Amino acid sequence: MEDLSRKQIKGSGIAVRGNEIDTDRIIPARFLKCVTFDGLGESVFYDERFDATGAERPHPFNEDRFKGARLLVVNKNFGCGSSREHAPQAIMRRGIRAIIGESFAEIFAGNCQVLGVPAVCLGAAQIKDLMQAIETDPRLEVELDLEAKVVRYGAHAPGFELDEAIRTSLVAGKWDSTAILMANEAAVRERAQSIPYLTAFQNA
């Protein structure tokens, strides 16, 4: 079985400032018609990044200096609004492997966990410092250490908040329930044979 553990995630960062950034701003509703999630990364924050003519607006995801960023830094209640799973899918498919914020909408954070993308919280002052550091030096390496429970950058290493059950599942690589079931197909089949209503359905 593939190693799905998320112990340390490191790379450059990108900061998207603003409170209450909802899922419609992350991925506009017209992009939800896709059959698969594959191309969603190109449309992340689309209406924030482009005007009605398709011309670029000022936005961090349009700046070459932030290309290849793996950690996204945000403010309060990020991912609020509708529960569309396309929002974290679009962010992940843009190359982001972890999100650090002041706070997150609960459903959005849960959808991130299902993808193996940690969404961890720092205090407002710590987020401000991290955003400024990234904007000053876009090549600055940021490390989210899920084992040590800290975010490292430069000389700083503030501790983050994340539900312990979620943290341990990410570290242990047990966040993907589908992969776990597929890796234990024989045990799943054996268990199914012991459930009367399933065996009755199979024999009908």
Plain-language structure description:
The chain has 204 residues and is an alpha/beta fold. It has two domains: 8-173, Aconitase, domain 4 (Alpha-Beta Barrel), CATH 3.20.19.10; 175-204, no CATH class. The chain is built from nine helices and seven strands, in the order ββααβαβαβαββαααα. It has helices at 23-26, 46-49, 86-93, 106-114, 124-136, 164-172, 177-183, 185-193, 196-203; strands at 8-11, 13-15, 71-73, 98-101, 119-121, 142-145, 150-153. The strands form two sheets. Strands 2-3-4-5 form a four-stranded parallel sheet. A three-stranded antiparallel sheet has the order 1-6-7, with no helix packed on it. Helix 3 links the parallel strand 3 (71-73) and strand 4 (98-101). The longest helix is centred in the middle third of the chain and has 13 residues, at 124-136. The chain is globular. It starts with 7 loop residues before the first strand and ends with a helix. The mean pLDDT is 89.
